[in-house]
Amino acid sequence: MKRKTVWSVSPIVLLFGALSLLLLLPLLFLNRTVFFIAAVVSVVVWCYGIWRLGYLKKDIRRYLSSITDHLNQQDRAALENTPVPIVVVSDNSEIVWYNDLFRREVLQSNDSLGQPLNEVFTNLSAGQLAGRVLSQVSCGDSTYSVYVSKLRVHDEVTYVLYCFDHTELTHIASEYELSRPVVLSLYLDNSDEVMKNLRDSERAQLFSQVDILIENWASEHAGLFRKNGSDRFMILIEQRYLDVIQKDRFDILDKVRAIPTEDNISLTLSIGVGRGNTLCDADLQARQTLDMALGRGGDQAVVKTKNGFDFYGGLSKSVEKRTKVRSRVIASALQQMIADSDMVLAMGHRYSDLDCLGSAVALTAACRKMGKTAYTVYDPETTLATALVEHYRTQAKGDLFIETKDALSLITPNTLLIITDIHQSERLDLPELYHQVETVAVIDHHRKMVDHIDDAVLFYHEPYSSSASEMVAEILQYMNGVTVSRLEAEALLAGIMLDTRQFVMKAGVRTFEAAAYLRKLGADTVEVKRMFAEDMTVYQHKAEIISSANSYRGMAIACVDSGGTGIRVAASQAADELLCVKEVSASFVLFFENGGVNISARSYGEVNVQLIMEAVGGGGHQTMAGAYLKNTTLETAVTLLHKAIDAYLLERERARAAQK
């Protein structure tokens, strides 16, 4: 058994003293004479006890100092004269000896014999010393590197600590980290849309406001400001100021958004933050994170960390980009890639829907028009677009589809894989296909995720588009000599109608232009509507889900304790239907499946459900998102969802307050 430190006697003596004083109180009321006599005697006894306790402590210190007497004169001289502070600690964390240098430099000429080690070194105890060679410890404002030597004498363990003062080195290292260069790349997302109807003088005035605001913000953080164009800026700061900016959650986003404009369209700013060993590395990373911010819809800042990315902002709606120049360039590049391949496979995400499968089958048909062997890969067990597959089979064109179990055998050294409506490899219908094909093209409209496919030869990502089908419809218009049939036009139109909820959500000018092009190709809206028909079982499931919904902070949340394809379809449809309820700004439907919880999230744009879903590990679009929580119960998932909603609403209120 470990012995207790001798200093523990003091609290006991104090306790008995307090009890004696309490016992004297009754005498004050019974006999005051006896009380005063007893009080005088108690004071005398107390004074004597305190004197004896101090004398006892001095005796103990002398005893502890003599424990090294068994060492020979040479060993004692070596310890005393070592030009390093040394302290000896017992196995119960009690200081038993130290040299004069330790007393002067570490203890500041005070005595600490017999005291616990953690009273000297606040973050070190004897229990932490076992098996350790070097520890970084603190004593007051100083930092020490401590080398530990473990000794065993007469079955007792003793630790000898050699202390090296590294306070200055620690300060230099900290200053080095805080002074590392950080590059901020800034871009005005929607300057063209805001400025297009303004006069030259008004544009100059608005740009001047932005320039002054950003330049002053850079000056507040001792930054070096440079304007690279009318809508592009670069700021160079130190790491210490980035910490402050992150603490303020990039309040410049709110300040730019608060600038008044003629059409009440808020200017939005995107920021990419880069750090690296050199300025060149930091600038490259800043441009990459800026691309990430723009790929997620803009109006946000992205900071790359050791564990991924940190996102700030992203609360406002994305503004549609009306130029089709990029679509023309992508169409030309994709057509060349198809021409250089001998096999083309098109594939979408797991649980493929009408947008995913419709865009894939249209590209497959276009490849066949170019004389290439092409197939659309899908899983018949999990697809949610069975109506589209059956529609093709009734028209004797079912050979365009191939099941996932047969796709791997078709791979050749010159195979092109076109991925639609998804840009994450682990969520593909057949991830193995992606890993085995060398040439990959990605076409997607969802906001960019951290784990996106980064090795694609062609990566066409347009978060301003309503759907992947809209993007493919634009591409087909610019592919020379390639036209698709009425069936493909109907498949694409079905995909657009699904993701826009019948042209209600995120339907911009280009969306209607794409729909007009498809209608011109012969797309029958009645046939398209039939693809949305649902069987009675799904309809009943949807009704049950809607009836179980509850309201939480103006949002509807419904839960289902079972899964399956029918429930998955009903859940997404129920989430859409719940938005029709008055005063519901967003809807969430949770259903349990395969040991986890799936969440379908929808909104009309007032609430960014993508940010809420990202907080629980999911993602998607501002108005349509989802998540899957592995090994989670419905109760736990609802709790996590409530916390994510609370955090989102708190951040939104903070941003709105900053704009006022």
Report strand %: 15-25%
Side-by-side strand order of the widest sheet: 7-8-6-9-10-11
Number of domains: 5
What is the mean pLDDT?
Answer: 84
CATH topology of the largest domain: inorganic pyrophosphatase (n-terminal core)
Please tell me what the overall shape is.
elongated
Which residue ranges are poorly predicted, with pLDDT under 50 across at least 5 consecutive positions? 1-8
Helices, by number, come to 24
Q: Termini separation (Å)?
A: 67 Å
How many strand segments? 23
Fraction in helix: 40-55%
Radius of gyration: 36 Å
CATH architecture of the largest domain: Alpha-Beta Complex
Largest sheet properties: 6 strands, mixed
**Which CATH class of the largest domain is shown?**
Alpha Beta
* Category by helix and strand content: alpha/beta
CATH superfamily of the largest domain: inorganic pyrophosphatase (n-terminal core)
Note the topology.
Elements: H1 9-30, H2 32-65, H3 73-81, E1 86-90, E2 95-98, H4 100-106, H5 126-129, E3 134-139, E4 142-153, E5 156-165, H6 167-178, E6 181-188, H7 191-195, H8 200-220, E7 224-227, E8 232-238, H9 239-247, H10 252-257, E9 269-275, H11 279-295, E10 300-305, E11 308-313, H12 325-339, E12 343-347, H13 354-369, E13 373-378, H14 386-394, E14 401-403, H15 404-407, E15 415-420, H16 431-436, E16 439-444, E17 458-461, H17 468-477, H18 486-500, H19 509-520, H20 525-530, H21 536-547, E18 550-552, E19 555-560, H22 565-578, E20 586-593, E21 596-603, H23 609-615, E22 619-620, E23 624-629, H24 634-659
Parallel strand pairs: 9-10, 12-13, 12-15, 13-14, 15-16, 16-17, 19-20
Antiparallel strand pairs: 1-2, 1-5, 3-4, 4-5, 6-8, 6-9, 7-8, 10-11, 18-19, 20-21, 21-23, 22-23
Helix pairs in contact: 1-2, 12-17, 13-17, 13-18, 17-18, 17-19, 18-19, 21-22, 23-24
